[in-house]
Each structure stands twice: as C-alpha cells, then as structure tokens.
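We were asked to recover a plausible sequence for a given structure. The inputs and outputs are reproduced exactly as logged, with field labels preserved.

PROBLEM: sequence recovery
POSITIONS: 170
GIVEN STRUCTURE:
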C-alpha cells in the first residue's frame, strides 16, 4: 500500500500555480544558461567599427598625401583629411565604449595600424574620390545592420563621405 508524501491536500488552483512557477523557473534557467549575452555579436560589431576607423584613417592619409599632386585643392583636401580624422576619432570612442561594455578582449587602437603608418605614395584626386565613395557605401551598408547611436554615427559618416566626394572633389 502506498502512503502519501504529504498529508495536506492541494487544490487544483495551487497545483497550477506550482506548475506555472516551476515552468517559468525552468525557462529562465535555460535562457540564461544557453546564451552568451551577445558577446560574440558585440565582438563582430567592434571588428566592423574598427574596419571603418581604419578606412577613415586611410582616407585622411590619402587626402593629405594628394595635396602634393593637386596644390590648387589644398583647402578641400585639408578639410577632407580633418573630417576623416574626426570620423576615426568618433569611431574609436564608440569602439572603446563597446569594448568596455562586454565586447571581450578587443582593444581600441590608440595608434594607427601598421598599414597606415608607412608614408604612402600620393594618390590622385580620382583615387581619393573613389575611396570616399567606397567609404560612404561601406558605412551606409553597416548603418543598415545596426541600430541606435551606431546607426546614426555610421549614417552621418556615410553622408559626409558622399558629400566630400561630390562637393569638395567634383
């Protein structure tokens, strides 16, 4: 003969409450145990922002180097160089914020990458214009996949690059 574990009887309502609480607890446990809190996605986003910062530095260097080939456009090329440097700085700040927010071991580059530290041969105006157009396209594509501040930052960078290519380097 079987003996009951508890001598008190439970109503149907209390049994449903216990079952509901147990299922919510199991779901919460499974959800926290199976996620990586977005750290993999954050690392990918930081890498994408880093590539945008590298492009900005390369565009700034190309514009500065092109002054030797087109001294009549010194004002436009200096403006482009300054703005692209500001873009790189803004992206570095966002990378630092994202990395500090749990992006893992990705660090913010405090100095330009090795490829941009070597003096490059001056690029022609057409090469600078093409590079700006590609940077605008790349930033716009990335802006469509992000949200919030990052999307606004990338959209602003895209618009600035397109304007620089069309207006400053017609």
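RECOVERED SEQUENCE:
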């Amino acid at each position: 003969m079987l003996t009951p574990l508890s001598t008190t009887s439970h109503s149907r309502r209390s049994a449903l409450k216990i079952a509901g609480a147990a299922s919510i607890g199991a779901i919460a446990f499974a959800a926290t145990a199976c996620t990586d809190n977005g750290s993999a996605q954050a690392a990918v986003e930081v890498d994408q922002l880093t590539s945008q910062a590298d492009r900005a530095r390369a565009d700034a260097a190309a514009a500065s180097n092109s002054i030797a080939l087109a001294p009549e456009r010194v004002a436009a090329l200096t403006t482009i160089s300054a703005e692209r440097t500001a873009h790189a700085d803004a992206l570095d700040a966002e990378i630092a914020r994202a990395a500090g927010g749990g992006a893992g071991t990705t660090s913010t580059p405090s100095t330009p990458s090795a490829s941009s530290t070597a003096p490059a041969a001056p690029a022609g105006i057409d090469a600078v214009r093409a590079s700006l157009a590609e940077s605008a396209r790349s930033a716009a594509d990335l802006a469509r996949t992000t949200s919030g501040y990052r999307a606004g930052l990338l959209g602003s960078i895209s618009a600035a690059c397109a304007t620089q290519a069309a207006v400053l380097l017609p």
